[in-house]
Amino acid sequence: MHTWAGILAGMMLFVAFYAGGLSMFAPEISHWARAEPGRAGASQDADALLSAFFQAYPQTDRATLVLASPGNAAPYMRWGKRGEPPRLVELDAQGTLRPLAATGHEAGRFVDYLHRKGGLPLPLDASEPVIGTVSMLYALALVSGVIVLLPSLVKDLFVVRFARNAKRLWLDLHNLLGIASLPFHVVMALSAAVFCLHDWIYDAQGHLIYPQGLRAVEARAQVPRTPVPPNRAAWRAPSQLTADAARSAPGFQPTSLDYRGLGTPRAAVYIAGTDDAHFKRRPREGIAVLDPATGALVQDGMLPGQGSGLARTLVSFFALHFGSYGGEPVRVLYAVLGVMGALLFYTGNVLWIESRTKRLRGQPAQCDQPRHVRWVAALNLGVCLGCVAALSAALVAARWLAGGPLGPDGVLHGTYYAVFAACVAYAFARGAQRAATGLLAAAALLTALIPATSALAPLLAPLGPWAGALDKPYAHGLALVDALSAGGAALLAWMAWRTARRQAAHRALPAHRSVLPTPVSQHE
Q1: How are strands ordered across the β-sheet holding 297-299?
Q2: pLDDT digit string, tens, across residues 256-284
Q3: Domains of the chain: which residue ranges?
Q4: Where is the chain membrane-spanning (predicted)?
Q5: Distance (Å, rounded) from C-alpha 484 to C-alpha 497?
């Protein structure tokens, strides 16, 4: 049960965990990859910006004021219809609204979607139920794996035997990764299943518990409010509202104000903000809902550290999956655990391949691996290393082509799936054993292009308007992306060197000792 659940779900989970680890830095990745519009002369006065916006666009029913931050030089307003590109304006030094080119979040969103879809080239609505089912298989594999390990748990715990028995080495690594990160995997398996299958769960709730509809229940639970006066000039300014939110939750640092229901008596402002001392509903932010006229707190269920016990329990469920607590150290830890999780699935599949190959080593007449073992080995190598190489290639392409006519979504998707398909095809054409070194080297090279691009961008920026979009002020978040990429590239290069060295040693063995080479035997 453990083996087959792992084989069926392992490769998709590798993509989900690797992309999920990177998605911990989705805002920084978006900032790294996108073109930065010029913001010279932009006003820092958020209060004046909102006032000017309400005067210029009185019919707007929803708009967001994005405050200045390390990744945003000056405040701006964003609004628009669902499914259409957002409109942006900022205030210049003379107090006049001026349009602002949209700063996309496509790269970070692409990494997050890849994580949520497990790499499937399908719409999110179609792929999420698949990932939800895979997550249930994943939970089954975790439980069955612990049961399998129980008889030898004490003796083999944290033991890695670097002997010539490749299966034993990979089994020790697989057990070590699994036991060391078991709580993390239990949380991920259960929360991912709920997130991906929530539509089915809500439908069941509607039929069995709330036949009159969930919205009617929510409407009854809402606290009656005094109608909000329509005169927006009399509303509290953004600086006052952010201070109101900070008084309700000390440590809460607002990042944006989303005005909803404008033109209605139930208008409200949803203030998103950070507070690393508490669990947060979103990956980076919690939300305080205020009355825009009085500054009174309307809802506290999504405000970090506030709300009822049930609301806090629900928020903790999101926070444990997103790693939205503890700030940057926890995000780095989750990224490392995500990569360790990906390696857990890779080693599990390699164990399956090695087990079937080992059975044949006692049969002198048998010279070739069975076809299904060769296919699984090639698919496992091509999918796993193809994901690593393709994701790096897509981010680099998005950065270099950010100032060009091609849309960022097309560049990201086109580059990723083209490189991914090429890696899988190369693994099948060469066989897993012979393709390993080349794919590791390609993944290392493409990943190293990320910090190399950051280093070259300032040198190429003077070449023209297109190259000028590459350069941007070097913020702390960009250094994180470059540092993690440089570390990953170094690790991949070391693995490529070790694999090539062992393959060379393997070729030097006498013929009678070199039967049935497998992707695992390279590491003997």
Answers
A1: 97-99, 87-91, 76-79, 63-66, 253-260, 268-274, 286-290, 297-299
A2: 999 999 989 889 999 999 988 888 888 88
A3: 1-33+108-120+327-507, 46-102
A4: 6-26, 130-153, 173-197, 332-352, 373-398, 410-429, 436-461, 473-497
A5: 20
